[in-house]
Amino acid sequence: MVGRTPIGHTATLKLIRRGKPEELKITVTPSHEEELASAMPAQKHERGTASSFGLFVKDLSPDLAKELGLDQPSGVVISSVQPGSRADEAGLRARDVILEVNRQTTKDVGSYQHAMQSGEKGKIVLLLVKRGDSTIYFALKPEA
Fold first, then answer.
1. 10 Å Cβ neighbour count for 1?
2. Global pTM?
3. In Å, how far from its chain's centre is CA 109?
4. Are residues 141 and 124 in contact, defined by beta-carbon separation less than 8 angstroms?
5. What is the mean pLDDT of each run of 10 residues along the chain (144 residues)?
6. Which of helix, strand or coil describes residue 58?
7. Could you tell me where the DSSP H helices lie in the chain?
């Protein structure tokens, strides 16, 4: 739906949050993926820890947290996303910060891995992600 909406137009999203229907007005803006990729730190070759969804994550360092405008280095940062993976299809990007997995706080790679493994096999994984000034939920569908 977003891909079919012209840039600059406003759309209304209907959703259910905590059991209550809500409507959000959004304005579609152009993607800045190339800018974000070119802004990756020089240590690009360090991919981090992989998941079955095509995500590579690593601990959020204090320096990177500061660079991303975060007050505290808590969470894991996506170092890369495998093209064509479930994470790529969901819209996750390098430099997104994962704050929660299935409503469990992720403080580091260890807690991220634990939360990813504790979910039921074949079930959707819900990620709370910080991207710039926004905090967004992403749903990752497992492979069929």
1. 7
2. 0.64
3. 14
4. yes
5. 74 86 84 52 46 85 83 85 89 92 91 84 87 90 74
6. strand
7. 33-38, 62-67, 86-90, 109-118
